[in-house]
Design a protein that fits this description.
Strand 6 (about 200-205), helix 7 (about 210-225) and strand 7 form a beta-alpha-beta unit. The protein has three domains: about 5-120 and about 175-375, Alpha-Beta Barrel (TIM Barrel), CATH 3.20.20.80; about 130-170, Alpha-Beta Complex (Oligo-1,6-glucosidase, domain 2); about 385-465, Immunoglobulin-like (Sandwich), CATH 2.60.40. By secondary structure, it is α/β, with parallel strands linked by helices. The chain is built from 14 helices and 18 strands. Helices cover about 30% and strands about 20% of the residues. The chain has helices spanning about 15-20, 50-55, 55-60, 95-110, 125-135, 180-195, 210-225, 255-265, 270-285, 285-290, 305, 310-325, 360-375, 375-380, and strands at about 10-15, 65-70, 75, 85-90, 110-115, 200-205, 230-235, 250, 295, 330, 385-390, 395-400, 405-410, 420-425, 435, 445-450, 450-455, 460-465. Helix 8 runs antiparallel to helix 12 (about 310-325). The chain has an eight-stranded parallel β-sheet with strand order 8-7-6-5-2-1-10-9.
Length: about 475
């Protein structure tokens, strides 16, 4: 399997388009909500593609190198997972010219762009489903969906019964990908946007298209169109079936996120955390592990700041682990400034552009982690190995090893400072070797003595030692 080499070096930034920045009020709907209003399932706040372009300097200053956009195609909802037209930018987000300008701006600065591919289901306004609603059993598109009976009712209250829909929501009719015309339509969408210049797809709920042949064909088409395009699958569990040369380059690594949050919140001990992490590491070959999309939050989860109780030290520790672990770290817009939010739609708040509302210390920390990671080949491409899991003192350590360098990562998520001895011989480090603190808090050096690297770790502290 050949994974696009840029993924393991990438730092992703996820943008929920309606809530990042409003660059063109002229395309706002007439009932647009005020920017920063409490988010709802139905309301639009005016975020658009020009807003991203106008705030691009912010993204470059932070250090991100790849953008993942939630759906941007024509739809009736602010989340746009109920697509009406897969070949059209939603006018509330801008025009095709705006999209091309954004793509060109990103590429000029070495930033890649991947789009959300929602191919399991569409919206009620999608042309083929609208034809079914109009013509019922006489529709030439009846085989594009899983119709159980006629007449099809897509609007009365309750779950869908006449046809299959995602989780039963009537607004999300499920495609019948056994129908050749549907497959050809989806493949044409994937090819079209790659030809426009996007750098890959994040595939929404791909396991609900439970068809290995479909995804093998999808992958072949994508790689023939652009061999360096990335394919990231939204798989929430450990499942190697979906990460290989017939499926995806990497997955959304939610299992690592879940274990890390449990560890930092104190509901999981060091050894259980180590075991959970090791289960992920052992499930995938190293090149795929390094190509996983590693989130701490997303549009589908409560915000990191909220889940960690607004504890700045723990949030900083979470980011430090994320940027040191194998995979492409992904920042959900606003997490870097401490934006709070409960489960959706609250996790989809508008980005507050008044700097007085930012947690400046947290943003500087994330900026620093990104900068150091970019300079460290071990943190981007090194192999992972656990070296310590201490339940009694609640500490954890691992190393990223590369022929050019090694980086030792030590976590102390407890309330007490600890002096931690890391066995050095197993890492190939002889007595007398010096290690340096990469996170730049003074000129601290650590020396290997008697097969031990003694690390003084403060409460809720993480160290990166090279």
């Amino acid at each position: 399997m050949t994974v696009p080499d840029w993924i393991q070096d990438a730092v992703f930034y996820q943008i929920f388009p309606d809530r990042f920045a409003n660059g063109d009020p002229a395309n706002d709907p007439p009932n647009v909500e005020p920017w920063g209003a409490p988010p709802t399932l139905w309301g639009f706040q005016g975020g658009d593609l020009r807003g991203v372009m106008q705030r691009f300097e912010y993204l470059l200053d932070l250090g991100v190198t790849a953008l993942y956009f939630n759906p941007i195609f024509l739809s009736s909802s602010n989340h746009r997972y109920n697509t009406y037209d897969y070949f059209r930018i939603d006018p509330k987000l801008g025009t095709m010219d705006d999209f091309r300008a954004l793509l060109n701006l990103a590429h000029r600065h070495g930033v890649r762009v991947i789009l959300d591919g929602v191919f399991n289901h569409c919206g009620r306004g999608f042309f083929a489903f609208a034809d079914v609603l109009e013509n019922q059993e006489h529709s030439p598109y009846r085989d594009w969906f899983h119709i159980h009976r006629f007449p099809v009712d897509a609007f009365s209250p309750g779950k869908a019964q006449d046809y299959e829909a995602w989780w039963g929501f009537k607004s999300l009719p499920k495609f019948n990908t056994d129908t050749q015309a549907v497959r050809e339509y989806i493949f044409s969408v994937a090819r079209y946007w790659l030809e426009q210049g996007i750098d890959g797809w994040r595939l929404d709920v791909p396991n609900e298209i439970d068809d290995d042949a479909f995804w093998a064909q999808f992958r072949r088409l994508v790689k023939m169109t652009n061999p360096r395009a990335a394919l990231i699958g939204e798989i929430w569990e450990i499942d190697p079936r979906w990460a290989n040369d017939t499926h995806f380059d990497g997955l959304m690594n939610y299992p690592v996120r879940e274990a890390l949050l449990a560890y930092l919140n104190g509901t999981m001990g060091s050894q259980r955390f180590a075991d959970a992490i090791e289960a992920v590491v052992r499930a995938y070959p190293p090149d795929i592990l390094r190509s996983m999309y590693l989130p701490l939050g997303s549009h589908d989860t409560p915000r990191l700041w909220t889940l960690l109780g607004g504890d700045l030290d723990k949030v900083k520790l979470a980011f430090a682990f994320q940027f040191a672990f194998p995979g492409a770290p992904a920042v959900y817009y606003g997490d870097e400034i401490g934006l709070p939010g409960d489960k959706d739609p609250d996790s989809r708040r508008a980005f507050p552009w008044e700097e007085s509302r930012w947690n400046a210390e947290l943003r500087s920390w994330v900026q620093r982690l990104i900068a150091v990671r970019k300079e460290s080949v071990a943190l981007r491409r090194g192999n992972y190995r656990q070296v310590l899991a201490d339940d009694r003192r609640r500490c954890f350590a691992f190393v990223r090893q590369h022929p050019a360098e090694s980086v030792l990562v030590v976590l102390n998520p407890g309330r007490c400072a600890r002096r931690i001895c890391i066995p050095a011989r197993s890492l190939g480090w002889e007595d007398g070797r010096e290690l340096y603190d990469l996170l730049g808090r003074g000129e601290r050096r650590f020396v290997v003595r008697d097969d031990c690297v003694e690390v003084p770790a403060g409460a809720n502290e993480v160290l990166w030692l090279r």
